[in-house]
Amino acid sequence: MGLVETEAIVLRTYKLSEADKIAVCLTRQAGLVRGVARGARRLKSRFGAGLEPFTHVNLTYFEKEGRELVTLSRAEIVRSHFAWASSAEALPVLGYLCELTIEFAPPHDTDERLFRMVRACMEAAAENPSALASVAVYYELWVLRLAGFLPELRRCGGCGRGLPAEGRKVYATPEGVLRCEGCAGSGDYAFDPEAHAQMREMQAKGPAVWAESFGRMSAGGRQRLSELTRRLLRRALEKDLRSQGAAAAASGPAEARPGAGPGAL
Question: Domain map of the chain by residue range?
C-alpha cells in the first residue's frame, strides 16, 4: 500500500466528471490497475498524452487499503503510438486485444510474463503495422498459454509421449487435448498439422519473427489457426468478447469471424 512506481501499458480510459478520467492499466509490478486521474481531461493536465490507450508509461499512483480504485499522480511516456493507434484498421484490433487482456488479467495480481508479452506485441505491431493481424493471433495464443487454456502441444494427453512436430497425424479431443494416433478415440478430430507446427513455434519465437512465419502459411492454414484460437478463447471465457467481431472484420480475410469454421479442431 502507499505510493507505487511501476511500468504500465494504458489499455482503456473512461470519462469521469467534467475534468477527470478513469484509466485501466496493465502494470509490471501490480498487474491490472484501475485508477482515477484527477484533472486529466483539462487542456493543461499534468498527464498530457500519457493516458492515451496503448501508451507505455512509467506510472506513479497512490493505493489505499480497501479501495479498488487507486489515485494516479504521474504517467511519464516511455513510448507512444499516436499515429499507429489512430488507424481506422488498427483501432478495432487493438481494442479487442486490450479487452482480452482485461478479461484474463486479475486485478492487482502481478504477472511479469503477461506484461512482457503485451509490451513485446505492442512494440512489434508498432514497428510493422501491416503485421498487426498476425501479431494479434500470437497475442491470443500467449494469453491462452499464460492462463492455462492452451493445449499441451509437445506431449500426448493420453500416453505422455512426445507428439510429432510433423509427418505423423495428431488428434484433438472435443475439449482440446492433443493425442497421438495410437491414443486417439472415436470422437477425436484430426488436428491441423500446419496449425500444430505454428503453435509450437510460438513458444520459442518473439511476436515479430512469429508473425513473419505466420504470414508464410497458406491462407487456409492462417484461417484455421485463427478459428482455433477463437474457439479456445470462447471455451475459456464462456462467451464472445464484444470487440471480437469488429476486430475480425478489420483484420481481413485471413482472420476468422466468431463462430466460423468447421467443428473439428
Answer: 2-80, 94-251
Q: In this predicted model, what pLDDT tens digit does every residue of 66-118 receive, in sequence order?
A: 788 999 999 999 998 776 666 778 888 988 999 999 999 988 889 999 999 99
User: Of 152, 153, 120, 116, which Cα lies nearest the Cα of 135?
Assistant: 120
CA distance 73 to 35: 10
How many angstroms separate the CA atoms of 93 and 244, rounded? 8
Cβ(25)–Cβ(53) below 8 Å = no
List of residues 6+ apart from 169 with CB closer than 8 A: 181, 190, 191, 193
Cα angle 80-33-128, degrees, rounded to a multiple of 5 = 30
pLDDT-derived band at 251, boundaries 50, 70, 90: low
Nearest to 138 by CA among 151, 156, 122, 162: 122
Residue 117 CA to residue 78 CA, distance in Å, equals: 17
Query: Do 2-80 and 94-251 agree at the fold level?
Result: no
Task: Choose among 64, 6, 1: nearest CA to 36.
Answer: 64
Q: Between 2.60.120.200, 2.40.50.140, 2.40.240.10, 3.40.50.280, what CATH number should domain 2-80 receive?
A: 2.40.50.140
d(CA 68, CA 35): 8
Q: Does domain 94-251 have CATH number 1.20.1440.120?
A: yes
Q: Which three cell numbers stand for residue 183?
A: 491414443
